[in-house]
Amino acid sequence: MEVASRVGLCARGVIYVLVGILAVRIGLGSDSGQEADRSGAVGTLGEQPFGRALLWALVVGLAAMALWRLSEAAFGQTVEGGDKWSRRLGSLGMAVFYAVICIGVVQTALVGGSAGGRPGDETSKEYTARVLDWPGGRVIVGVFGVVLIVVGVVILVRSLMRKFEKNLRTDEMRPATRRVVAILGIVGGAACGVVAAGAGLSVLLAAVRYDPDQAKGLDETLRSFAATPAGPALLIAAAVGLLLFGLYSFCEARWRKAAEHGTPAEQPTGAADPGARPGAP
User: Fold this and answer.
1) Fewer CB within 10 Å of terminal CB in the chain, N or C?
2) Do 102 and 67 meet the contact criterion of CB atoms below 8 Å apart?
3) Rounded to an integer, what distance in angstroms lies between the CA atom of residue 11 and that of residue 178?
4) 38 vs 269, which has greater pLDDT?
5) What are phi and psi of 238, to 5 degrees?
6) Number of Cβ within a 10 Å radius of residue 31
7) Nearest C-alpha neighbor of 255 from the set 164, 163, 154, 188
8) Where are the alpha helices (DSSP H) in the chain?
9) pTM of the prediction?
10) What is the distance in angstroms between the CA of the first residue and the CA of the last residue of the chain?
11) Nearest-CA neighbor of 177 among 166, 187, 188, 185?
12) CA distances from residue 280 to 2, 151, 255 in whole angstroms, order as listed
C-alpha cells in the first residue's frame, strides 16, 4: 500500500498539472479546444508521442490510488485518528472517485488514446437531470451541493492551517525545500477548495432552480471565474493553484509518511519503537 500510495499520488499530480496548464491557456485567451478537466488532461496526454503508453501508465497510477484509498477505508488511515469512521468514509468516497476516473482512462486508451472521453460539464448536467427526476431528487441534488461546498471549505481551511504537513516527513527536508513544499500545499490546496466550493454552489443552484444546466463540471466552474469582476485574472489564479497542487502531489509522493510494518493504523507514524527500522522513503 505504501508503493500504491506513492504511485497514485504521482498519477494525481499528472492530472492536476495538465488541468492547470489547460486552464491557464484558457485564461490567457489561447483556448486549444480542450476541456480544463479530467477529460481534457487525458486527451492532452494521449496526443503526446507514445500517448497510449502514457495513458496505460496513468491507468496503473489511478488504479493504485483507488486501491490505496480502499485499503484506508477497510483498515484505517496511517495517521493519528485514521481509524475514525469519518476518515474511513472519506477514503471510500475517494476510492470510488479514482476508480471511476481510472475506468474512463481505460476506455480512452482502448479507443486510441487521442480522445479524452466525455467532457465533465456534459456528464455533470446529465447526471443532475437524472437525479432531479427522481422522487425527492431535488433534495438529493441540493444536499450533494451543500456537501461539496462544505468539503471545499474544509479543504481550504485545512490548507491554510498547513494540516497537510502532519502527513509529511518534514524532518527529512532542507529548510528551503520545506518552505517550497509548504507554499505548494497551501496555495494548491486552497485553489482546490475554492474550485470544489464553486462546483458545489452550481449544483445547489441547479436544485434550487430545478435546472440541471446550472450544474457545472470543473471546466465550466473555472471558466465562470472569468465572468467575475476580477475577470480572467481569477481564472488564471485558480489555474495556477491547481497546477501547484499537482506539483505538491509529487512532493507528497516523495515525503509522505508511511506506517511501520505491523503498526496499527490509529498509531501516529513515528510513534513506534525508537529502535525499529524506519520505513523506506
Assistant:
1) C
2) no
3) 22
4) 38
5) -65, -40
6) 12
7) 164
8) 2-27, 38-46, 51-75, 85-110, 120-132, 137-160, 175-209, 218-225, 232-255
9) 0.82
10) 13
11) 185
12) 9, 32, 10
Question: What value, to the nearest 5°, has the Cα angle with vertex 26 and ends 8 and 205?
Answer: 80
Residue-level pLDDT at 32: 60
How far from 121 is each of 17, 21, 51, 102, 220, CA to CA, in Å?
Answer: 19, 18, 24, 18, 6
What DSSP character marks residue 165? G
**Mind listing the pLDDT tens digit for each residue in 58-88?**
999 999 999 999 998 998 877 666 678 888 8
DSSP SS3 for 70: helix
Mean pLDDT of the 234-249 span: 94
Amino acid at 158: R
pLDDT at 81: 66
The residue type found at 174 is: R
Q: What residue has cell string 480512452?
A: 108
For residue 280, pLDDT over 70 is answered with no
**Residue 256: beta bridge partners?**
168
The per-residue pLDDT for range 265-277, each reduced to its tens digit, is: 444 434 333 333 3
Rounded Cα distance, 64 and 27, in Å? 33
* 3-state helix vs strand vs coil in the chain, percent to 5: 70, 0, 30
Q: How far apart are CA 38 and CA 35, in angstroms?
A: 8
At residue 184, the pLDDT reads 97
Dihedral angle sign, alpha carbons of residues 158, 163, 167, 170:
positive
Distance, CA of 256 to CA of 82 (rounded, Å)? 15
C-alpha triplet 245, 251, 255: angle, nearest 5° = 140
Q: What is the pLDDT of residue 218?
A: 79
Half-sphere exposure of 224 (CA within 13 A, CB side): 17
